[in-house]
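Note on ligand handling. Small-molecule inputs were canonicalized before submission; formal charges were left as drawn, and no protonation-state enumeration was performed. Where a ligand contained multiple stereocentres, the stereochemistry in the source SMILES was retained. For magnesium ion, this procedure yielded the string shown in the input block below.
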Amino acid sequence: MSTPALLIDQAVKTYANGFTALHGVSFRVEPGEFFGLLGPNGAGKTTLISAMAGLSRLSSGRIAVNGHDVHTAAHAARMSLGVVPQELVFDPFFSVREALRFQSGYFGIRRNDDWIDEIIHKLGLDDKADTNTRNLSGGMKRRVMVAQALVHRPPVIVLDEPTAGVDVELRQSLWQFIEEINRQGHTIILTTHYLEEAQSLCDRIAMMKHGRLVALDSTANLLQAESQLRLELVLDNRLPESLHRCLLEEDGHHYLLRLADYSELAFVLQALQFDGIAIKRMQLLETDLEDVFLRLTSDKAGAAA
Ligand SMILES: Nc1ncnc2c1ncn2[C@@H]1O[C@H](COP(=O)(O)OP(=O)(O)O)[C@@H](O)[C@H]1O
Ligand SMILES: [Mg+2]
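Structure output:
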């Protein structure tokens, strides 16, 4: 296997107050993936991202970015990673362009103006390039944070809730830009509360809850595993025995069946036909990530870990 863009190996984090925010999280992200890290507030996403960025130290376990351990090869790891933090933090005395130049200097990159101009342009910040960052709207500030994360052209980019508080239009153009850099080969790791966003953007998704992974799979598999079929049979017809294992709910002639994947739909139809059972109405319920997410992260659900 190639060197993963991100390797998280048994990450444990106990804060100074004794609270454990990560209970041994492990996963890897392959180069070029668009990867979603989802979980309710307090799941430990930002804690994990801080450890990736080398801003806080794990209590145990290991993180490597592009094969570089964030502690034993901190500089190489930092050069490989661009983080767009959840909190908007700026030096209030810089214009947008100055902030990006300063950030380049921090990474030891001297002549970077061409690239800085390009990212300013791509992020729709041309008009604001010489505006002091403190005078920008929240959405524009968020764009500057994205630009800052890109000044050193990192192969791996982490966005921690980048669209929180950003209006719809800005969100769309931000995603177009992020998708474009993903197509250029950058690995993208995204945390978001907007699940439909994760659903349309991410190839693969990790879901966290209380500092543990509760799901790790391709977006397609996560969604497929949840398909449901609503079935209404004509009077006097009953669901065949062979389909009882799929049965979620039953109410008179109405049945709700759970399908492990779409191929099971064919199986269900065959079973009905085989028994000569007439369908009055049938509806395949599209599940979205929100259903999966709620099921896996609700407090009723047991942790899969
Ligand atoms: N510095 C800290 N000291 C103690 N507990 C913290 C600290 N930072 C975060 N936490 C706790 O760790 C848990 C995970 O927080 P966080 O990583 O911010 O979650 P998320 O980003 O998924 O919302 C939360 O319960 C939070 O209150
Ligand atoms: Mg967070």
